[in-house]
Amino acid sequence: MSLPINGVLCTLTVLILWRAEELVEACSCAPVHPQQAFCNADVVIRAKVVGEKEVDTGNDIYGNPIKRIQYEVKQIKMFKGPDQDIEAIFTSPVSAMCGVTLDTSGKKEYLISGKAEAGGKMHVTLCDYITPWEPMSPTQKKSLTQRYQMGCDCKECLWTDLMIEKQVHGRQANHYTCVKRADGSCSWYRGVTPPKKEFLDIEDP
């Protein structure tokens, strides 16, 4: 049975709009150095995920329930954030909307960064820096306590891992921190130990 021309056009229009909606909803994130992710985040914690459930968190403009995944977490250490511990992390239920999938067995530790919400909660997306704790480099782990914060005002440290090594987790991401020095200039610093006074006091010509 053949469809009338109007019916065919209507079907094509629906398909095009549906595909366009898929493209709009697709999650796309620009990679950043771990230090930049730290600086951009409201909250950065080390934690285990011990539970998961889907919850309604209000309604959209059409009255439909807005669903989110709520992860129950056991915070081990807070590197940046509010005074109270984070007890729950929220994310979208689908990856197309930047939803994050985490291991809920309680056996894996994560470094989790994201946006603060009231009442010991935070919201995370695929664009936030979330990674298993164990494989992180010693420099990355040490830098979380102070060194990353020292360079949050810096703009001139050029991240070159993507250009030179063609990967996100290159030498700079794993072993370097952008640090502000005494004269206000910034420079990449490599090492697990804190920068020495001589390094911080260097003045650019």
Structural notes for this entry:
The chain is α+β, with helices and mostly antiparallel strands. It is built from seven helices and eight strands, in the order ααββββββααααββα. The strands form two sheets. Strands 1-2-3-5-4 form a five-stranded mixed barrel. It starts with a helix and ends in a 5-residue tail after the last helix.
The fraction of residues assigned to DSSP E strands is 25-35%
* CATH class descriptor of the largest domain: Mainly Beta
| Low-confidence spans | 5-24
Instruction: Give the N-terminus to C-terminus distance in angstroms.
Output: 81 Å
Per CATH, the architecture of the largest domain is Beta Barrel
Order of helices and strands: HHEEEEEEHHHHEEH
Total helices: the number is 7
Write down the Rg. Answer: 22 Å
Quick check: average pLDDT? 86
State the total count of DSSP E strands: 8
Give the biggest beta sheet. 5 strands, mixed, barrel
The strands making up the biggest β-sheet line up spatially as 1-2-3-5-4
Alpha-beta classification:
alpha+beta
**CATH third-tier fold name of the largest domain:** OB fold (Dihydrolipoamide Acetyltransferase, E2P)
Q: What is the total domain count? A: 2
